[in-house]
Design a protein that fits this description.
With 171 residues, the chain is mainly beta. The chain has one helix at 2-21, and strands at residues 25-29, 31-32, 56-62, 74-79, 91-98, 101-104, 108-109, 122-126, 131-135, 146-148, 151-155, 161-164.
């Protein structure tokens, strides 16, 4: 009996890494969108595109060579979104996925501004400043599709750019 329990414990311990390793995800922390400076000198103080703030917005994507089939291709985790008065937001953000340059096997490469490669923005519901969203492209990309570049943008409830990919140095 003790041997069977030890064997069961060993199987569970050996199986646990396989379960966590089965679906690894890349994590990208989005950063606040900074307004463009149009002058020749640095613009002081820096300004953000949105009057809303956030604690963290994380984009997760499968760490696999190929897009997952019949599964979300992106996950968005949103924490601590506050309106200009500092109150947690209950409402919707907009997630815009940029497709980049798209090439289909047998059809060739589409022009960068082709309406066939554009993706409509989707709503990301928030409650008390927090939300999660699983992005599943419809329809799924055909086998052999290659996409160069692309990216994501998150817009606040007023339609202003809130968060983008980028980097932030520790304060």
């Amino acid at each position: 009996m003790a041997h069977m329990l030890r064997s069961l414990g060993l199987l569970v311990a050996l199986g646990a890494p396989a379960v966590t390793a089965a679906a690894p995800y890349n994590r990208v922390y989005l950063v606040p969108a900074v307004k463009q400076c149009l002058g020749r000198a640095a613009c002081q103080p820096r300004e953000f595109e949105s009057r809303y703030t956030f604690q963290t917005i994380v984009l997760r994507s499968p760490a696999t060579r190929y897009l997952p089939v019949d599964k979300p291709s992106l996950f968005l985790e949103v924490h601590g979104v506050r309106d200009p008065s500092g109150a947690p937001v209950t409402g919707n953000l907009k997630l815009k996925v940029h497709s980049g340059r798209v090439s289909l096997a047998g059809l060739g490469t589409f022009p960068d501004d082709s309406p066939l490669t554009q993706v409509a923005p989707v709503s990301v519901p928030l409650k008390n400043g927090n939300g999660r969203y699983a992005y599943r492209p419809e329809p799924q990309a055909p086998n052999g599709t290659i996409v160069n570049g692309g990216g994501v943008e998150v817009y606040d409830p007023e339609g202003n750019l809130l968060a983008v990919t980028g980097t932030v140095a520790k304060p």
